[in-house]
Sequence to fold (263 residues):
Amino acid sequence: MTTKEVTAPLVQMRDMRVSFGGVHAVDGVSLQLLPGEIHALVGGNGAGKSTLIKTLSGAQRADSGTIFVDGEPVDIHSPIDAKAHGIETIYQTLALADNIDAPGNMFLGREMTTGLGNLDDSAMEAAARDIMARLNPKFENFKSPVSSLSGGQRQSVAIARAVYFNARILIMDEPTAALGPAETEQVRQLIRQLKDEGLGIILISHDIHDVFDLADRISVMLQGKLVGTVRKDDVTMDEVLAMIIVGKLPGELSQSELADLHG
Fold:
C-alpha cells in the first residue's frame, strides 16, 4: 500500500454552502476525514455544524459545494445515497424502535428473510450476536425490547447496526449525552475500537472532555463559517473554547480575552 493510499481522505467536503431564507447556515466550509481518524466538529448552538453534517448524511441538500468519497466526487441527495457510499449516521435520538429487540433494530428496514419470504429471526439474532461479540462482548439482552436497555447498551445497538452494514464513515451526534460515567467510558472505548479498525468518525459533541479524550483533529464552526481545524495535541481546551466563543485561532487570542473565558 502506498503512502498516498494510506493518507488519502475518506471524505472531503469542499466549499459547502447552505442558506435558509437568506441566512447562511453553512458558508463556504471545507472539511476532510481520514481513515482511522476521529474528527470532532464543535461549535455553539446555531454554528452550522448540524446543517453541514446533514449534507453529508443526505438529510439536507447543499446549495453548492462538492463532496468527495475516496477522492471521487459523489452526489448525496438522500440518506440512501449516503449509505451507498458507506456513510452511516447515529443521531443523538439513536432512531431505535423501543418496542423491538436489538436484532430487530439492527435490521430495521433491511430485514433478513427466509426463502419463503418470512422474517428470518434466527439469522438476524445470530448476526447480531456475532457483531456484538466483537463490539460489546458483555451485551446479553438480545431478546428484550430496547426500551428496557441502558443508554450505553442502546448506543451499542445503534453502532452495531451501522457497522454491520459496512459503514466506513460514521457520523456520531453527541454519543455520550445523558450517559453516566461508566457508560460514557464504555461508549468511548467502543469509538476508539472503531477508529482502530480504520473507520473514519465525525464526532459532534458539546462535551469538551469527550472531544479531548477522543479526537485526533478538531474543527470549529461559528455563525456558519469554519473558524479553523487544529490537531488536538497542538492545542489546549482554553484555545478550543476561544475558537468556539470568540472565533479566534490559537495565537490570535489576547490575555484579556483568555481571562474573559473564565468570567
The first strand starts at residue 11 and ends at 20. Confidence is low (pLDDT under 50) at residues 1-5. The chain is about 35% helix and 25% strand. The CA atoms of residues 50 and 204 lie 8 Å apart.
